[in-house]
Design a protein that fits this description.
With about 450 residues, the chain is α/β, with parallel strands linked by helices. Among the domains are: about 180 residues, NADH-ubiquinone oxidoreductase 51kDa subunit (Rossmann fold); about 70 residues. It contains 13 helices and 18 strands. Strand 11, helix 5 and strand 12 form a beta-alpha-beta unit. The model has no long low-confidence stretch (mean pLDDT about 95). The structure holds iron/sulfur cluster (2 copies). The site of one iron/sulfur cluster has 15 residues, from helix 9 and helix 10.
Length: about 450
């Protein structure tokens, strides 16, 4: 094990007020099980899980309640024992809706009986380890929610030689991953060893921003005895260092091609929370039924890093953090840069709920339709070498084809351009609109070809 500086500085990037001091020193606290858990069947990218229980059923913690709904899908398990009270469409934090299973806890928090730990995991084959990850219902916990078992199964011919563990947590305010590295470093390291065995890759880089010296020290301590090619890479604190392509460039100096995937340069990136979930699934045999969410913002009375069951309502999370001490003008699920604005506290936590953020009125930026003043700040800030000003104007003129030619699909929706824009133009919304339009058109064309 060694320590490495970042190889390269990522293009663009910004330095917003990080405000991590609100929770960075706060140890993870386990929240008691609330009086109702609303467990969404869409906690991941891809097809929703198919409900496997009926109203009135009694369930145990860890019992399968949602089966894979397709190849790109993830299983869902009961987060506690109790009774299924309802199965109905419910709002999701991303602004849509999905089928959810309401569980009324019975207070026993009884685990399902067929839990099989594998302390002997080193003797298992990669395929078996992947099936354990799949069974446990793990999706990328950094926010993207891509099914982990699919990510760990590259297609034939693709070789992964480097595993990057993403401990950057570059989004302002969020500290859940930071606390996991400080408090669960050894288990995260064992999760890394499991992934290393699955992929058969020799090289491991744990990438952490330099504003988390205690996390760096904790990871270095547990990796000290490793005789393989492993290192903690110290990244400069800058948003968006945690984005996959940017992290690969910073840590390895390799550029993922436009439209390509990390595996195209032999890399795979896993978030620290996901890595811990892999440890829990394989070594302890536990399905994913809880996660750490940073509940934060200046209006919150007792902000913290809360270990809560999946399906906990945002209202219950806030109540556990003693509510508000001032006016909150905006609520965001996730971080302020890439999170989703909430109109109520009705949504419930999922495998991707990294944060719940409350912003004061003076912290909320309103967008305008003022014209671009051609200052170029958005271009300088864009980590993907895009031209947000031009793209935005094309999209306003509904010229989606031109936006596609200018690689709008490469936009990672990081929000750096909008953060810098003095005209407060809704640049990210424009990029999202164009990307959605292009994808819808591609789906239509595919359907036409089939018929
Ligand atoms: S949101 Fe898209 S266009 Fe804007 S800075 Fe990020 S990658 Fe560039
Ligand atoms: S930052 Fe805003 S005003 Fe400046 S060039 Fe970009 S879109 Fe135009």
């Amino acid at each position: 094990m060694k320590r490495e500086p970042a190889k390269f500085k990522v293009n663009g990037g910004i330095h917003p007020a990080y405000n991590k001091q609100l929770t960075a020193e706060k140890a993870i606290i386990e929240m008691p099980v609330p009086s109702l858990l609303r467990v969404s069947m869409l906690q991941h990218l891809g097809a929703p899980a198919k409900v496997e229980v009926a109203k009135g059923d009694t369930v145990s913690r860890g019992q399968l309640i949602g089966e894979h709904g397709g190849f790109i899908s993830v299983r869902v398990h009961a987060p506690t024992s109790g009774t299924v009270k309802a199965i109905a469409e419910a709002p999701t934090a991303t602004g849509g809706s999905a089928i959810a299973v309401d569980i009324e806890p019975d207070g026993e928090d009884r685990w399902v009986e067929d839990i099989t730990p594998h302390p002997d995991w080193e003797s298992l084959e990669g395929k078996k380890l992947i099936s354990l990850v799949s069974d446990a219902g793990i999706a990328g916990m950094g926010g993207a929610g891509f099914p982990t078992h699919v990510k760990l199964s590259p297609p034939p011919g693709k070789v992964i030689d480097t595993l990057i563990i993403n401990g950057a947590e570059c989004e302002p305010y969020l500290t859940a991953d930071h606390r996991l590295m400080v408090e669960r470093a050894e288990d995260i390291w064992n999760g890394i060893r499991i992934i290393r065995k699955i992929l058969g890759c020799a090289t491991v880089r744990v990438a952490i921003e330099d504003n988390k010296p205690d996390a760096i020290a904790a990871m270095e301590a547990v990796m000290a005895e490793d005789t393989g090619d492993s290192a903690v890479v110290i990244l400069k604190t800058e948003y968006p260092q945690g984005a996959e392509k940017q992290q690969i460039f910073a840590a390895l100096g390799k550029e993922v091609p436009s439209g390509g995937l990390p595996m195209d340069v032999g890399a795979l990136v896993e978030n620290v929370g996901t890595t811990l979930a892999i440890f829990e699934a394989v070594v302890k045999g536990l399905p994913l039924t809880e996660r750490v969410t940073t509940v934060t913002g200046f209006p919150v009375k007792a902000p913290g890093n809360i270990l809560a069951r999946l399906g906990t309502s945002y209202a219950d999370l806030l109540a556990f953090c003693e509510g508000l001490q001032g006016k909150a003008a905006k609520v965001v699920s996730g971080g302020p840069m890439m999170g989703f604005a909430q109109h109520s506290l009705d949504a419930t936590t999922t495998k991707t709920t990294s944060g719940l953020l409350f912003l004061r009125p003076d912290q909320v930026r309103t967008f305008s339709s003022m014209p671009c003043i051609s200052c170029g700040r958005c271009v300088q800030a864009c980590p993907m070498y895009l031209m947000p000003a031009e793209l935005s104007q094309m999209i306003e003129a509904e010229d989606i084809e031109a936006a596609e030619e200018l690689n709008v699909l490469d936009c990672i929706e990081c929000g750096c351009c909008a953060f810098e824009c003095p005209a407060h133009r809704p640049l990210v919304q424009h990029m999202k609109q164009a990307k959605a339009g292009i994808m819808a058109k591609r789906r239509e064309e595919k359907a036409k070809q089939k018929s």
